[in-house]
Amino acid sequence: MDTKNTMEVSNKEARLLEQLRSNPQLEEHLHALLECAMAEHLGQASADEVEERVVKHIRDIGLVAMHGWASQTEEQCARQLLRDDPSARLRKKKERK
Asked: What is the mean pLDDT of each run of 10 residues along the chain (97 residues)?
């Protein structure tokens, strides 16, 4: 195997790394998902155990992704509102304890 080719990062891979670095929670869940897959491959867990863990991590990834999407959408709507009506006042919802 040519080590020069394995060390090169494509634009697609560089973009993925950038996205993961900007979302550490998502990176953490994806890493855990990969670790689960490798555990089964290396014989450290049964297929059923790996499947259960993978499903959990995929659900977690979905929740993190949707939370990020909702936050970005909320910010975008707020910016649009302020552009359309500079006199608008934005308030944040009180956080539950």
From this structure: 65 91 90 81 77 90 92 90 84 69
97 in a domain, yes or no?
Answer: no
Taking alpha carbons only, the member of 30, 95, 94 closest to residue 61 is 30
Residue 18 in domain: yes
CA distances (Å), 91 to each of 12, 36, 55, 79, 81, in order?
Answer: 38, 42, 37, 13, 12
Token output for 36: 């689960």
State residue 1's pLDDT score. Answer: 44
- Domain, as residue range, for 40: 12-84
User: Domain for residue 71, yes or no?
Assistant: yes
Residue 1 lies in a domain: no
Give the chain's domain count. Answer: 1
Position 40 scores a pLDDT of 63
